[in-house]
Amino acid sequence: MFRSDAISWDLLSSLAHAKALRRLWIYPPRWLGPRAERPSGSIFPQLRTLNIRANSLASCTGFFHRTPLTNVTEISICCSASEDDDNVSQVLVDISSLISSQCTALEFVFYSLPDPFPYDEIPSTCPRPMLEPYQTCHQLRVIALETPYLLSLTDNDLEDLVKAWPHLEVFHLIQSGIEYPLVHLTLRGITSLLYHCTKLTHFSLLFDANWVPDDIARLSRGILSAVKYMGVDRSPVTPSGDVAAYFSNIMPHLEIVSVHDGQGDWSEWQWICSQHQQWPAIRKNMSPGELFYLLTDIGDYCTTYCGRDWGWRFHRSW
Length: 318
Fold this sequence. Notes:
Elements: E1 2-4, H1 9-15, E2 23-26, E3 49-54, H2 57-66, E4 74-79, H3 88-102, E5 108-112, E6 124-125, H4 128-131, E7 142-147, E8 150-151, H5 155-162, E9 170-175, E10 185-186, H6 187-196, E11 202-204, E12 207-208, H7 216-220, E13 229-233, H8 241-250, E14 256-259, H9 267-274, E15 281-284, H10 288-296, H11 301-304
Parallel strand pairs: 1-2, 2-3, 3-4, 4-5, 5-7, 6-8, 7-9, 9-11, 10-12, 11-13, 13-14, 14-15
Helix pairs in contact: 2-3, 5-6
């Protein structure tokens, strides 16, 4: 394992031939310096895990353009947009395309994009173009994306995406910093997610739970969901028998429902939980840091956050 906050192209070129290097944590500056000659021969032959913390999306793009990551299976990126970044949405799509084209065996992808730039403009964006490149990565088990931008994902968008990930165990789309986010998904989209991703155990999405679609019985036929954790953020819900029966029937193993910390009145979701056969507990949303620690089994959030060991140990023992 190698960790550095003073990375340069020369240092990366040296590390590229380290045959035993399996985990790399880097903190690239906005400018990595003049590009060295591209390393020859086998590059990062054993690298499996890559963690990037950066203050500019441009530096991430430069790194992925320059560095082949053929054998990497786990990538996490925490990065804020800066004044160096033009057309942030397109840059994010470019990064996804670069990663997915190189990492054909990718199993784990984590994005945390906490701050928009400029700060007075928070545009609506569809995460579909950012996620579509990963449809070639059929071994994905973990997808987690946290963004301050308005997410406009529809039921059809979600179904088209998740068809490509039959091994998905964790799926989080977290919308941060927005007081009144738009809601486009419905329970039809949630049903499609559970239908196509039969190994799913944890997910977070913003969806409309005020009503149960008329064709939900047909859509949910044959689903054996193993979901234990459902993040609903500020999802609207109606405390009705039909809605409660939907969650009880389609997610019989549900243990935790996570809601937005600032939502205040959780009574409607509490009522839904009280009608569920497992009586799932209500918890506040995880922060991106908590989510990352749970997913990577670093630290002790497994015991401090949920009061139990959730076993979110998805990466292999390096």
